[in-house]
């Protein structure tokens, strides 16, 4: 008997997952270097930033694992990943604003250079290490990466929604197969 739904495609092959992993790794490094434990508020922000970055990555994993049996759950979890990364983006923007640092414009030369690094084959946070020596450059670099990841997640969610509309979900496929066998 042929399977109704194929098993999940493998989150490790997804560019959104690769980017989210880089965002997580760089956020941990950023927080260790540039966030402090001096006040309880600073600790909460430190912890929340790391948890938001982790949630962005882990919800892609969980969504991918649901993909074989629930496209609805997969889409929902990718949306949660997207929301977590948007929360993290806001934290980085706050970091820059509260320190009177400049946030790069989307089409600035610096932002374009960071975006081009995504085409390198390494797929590792090490690709961006030259930006981590300075808090303003580090935050701006990670902002660029979050925006790229959110763009990829938006495209992924739209594609899944369109496929769901066109092909239906797991329950519908099971029902159609059952009817066809009668």
Protein model, in words:
The protein is mainly α and 182 residues long. The protein has one domain. Helix content is 71%, strand content 0%. The radius of gyration is 19 Å and the shape is elongated. The relative contact order is 0.16.
Percent helix, as a range, is: over 70%
> Got a strand count?
0
Structural class: mainly alpha
End-to-end span in angstroms? 15 Å
- Kindly report the average pLDDT value: 87
Rg calc = 19 Å
Tally of DSSP helical segments: 6
Residue runs with pLDDT of under 50 for 5 or more positions: none
**Secondary-structure element pattern, one letter each:** HHHHHH
- Biggest sheet character: none
Total domains: 1
Name the shape in a single word: elongated
Strand percentage lies at under 5%
SSE blueprint and pairings:
Layout: H1 15-34, H2 40-66, H3 71-98, H4 109-117, H5 135-167, H6 170-181
Key words describing this protein structure:
single chain, 182 residues, mainly alpha
How would you sum up this structure in a few lines?
The chain is mainly α and 182 residues long. It has helices at 15-34, 40-66, 71-98, 109-117, 135-167, 170-181.
């Amino acid at each position: 008997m042929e399977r109704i739904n194929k098993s999940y495609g493998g989150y490790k092959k997804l560019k959104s997952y690769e980017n989210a992993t880089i965002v997580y790794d760089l956020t941990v490094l950023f927080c260790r270097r540039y966030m402090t434990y001096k006040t309880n508020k600073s600790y909460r922000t430190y912890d929340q930033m790391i948890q938001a970055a982790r949630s962005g990555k882990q919800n892609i994993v969980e969504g991918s694992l649901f993909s074989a049996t629930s496209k609805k759950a997969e889409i929902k979890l990718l949306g949660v990943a997207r929301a977590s990364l948007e929360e993290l983006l806001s934290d980085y923007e706050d970091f820059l604003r509260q320190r009177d640092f400049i946030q790069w414009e989307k089409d600035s030369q610096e932002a374009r250079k960071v975006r081009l690094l995504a085409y390198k084959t390494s797929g590792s946070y090490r690709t961006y290490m030259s930006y981590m020596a300075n808090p303003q450059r580090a935050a701006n670099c990670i902002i660029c990466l979050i925006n790229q990841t959110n763009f990829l997640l938006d495209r992924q969610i739209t594609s899944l929604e369109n496929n769901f509309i066109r092909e239906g979900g797991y329950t519908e496929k099971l029902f159609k197969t059952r009817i066809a066998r009668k």
